[in-house]
Specification:
Blueprint lengths: L4 E6 L5 E6 L4 E4 H9 L6 E6 L2 E6 L30
Antiparallel strand pairs: 1-2, 2-3, 4-5
Length: about 90
């Protein structure tokens, strides 16, 4: 089953700007997604104020299927990758 909501655009800072609901086929800005969450239309997500900006985030749970993540364009892999000759 595909993720319900995916990020379609990130800003230079890494903030998620645009979203796509794979079930309804609706594209949303961050502000539109925030309003939908606040209306109760996305019960697996909530809104946090990050740097005084309302930001959609997935609820903490044991699944990764509802995680928003990013577009993958900023390097979302591990922070540290051992190089040749270093112990893992």
């Amino acid at each position: 089953m595909p993720k319900r909501v995916v990020v379609t655009k990130e800003g230079k800072s890494g903030r998620n700007l645009n979203f796509h609901d794979n079930f309804t086929k609706k594209n949303m800005t961050r502000g539109e997604f925030v309003k939908e969450i606040e209306k109760g239309n996305y019960n697996k997500y909530h809104v946090r104020k990050i740097n005084n900006i309302k930001t959609p985030v997935s609820n903490p749970d044991s699944t990764t299927n509802n995680n928003l993540g990013g577009t993958g364009k900023r390097g979302t892999g591990p922070r540290f990758m051992p190089t040749k000759g270093m112990k893992k």
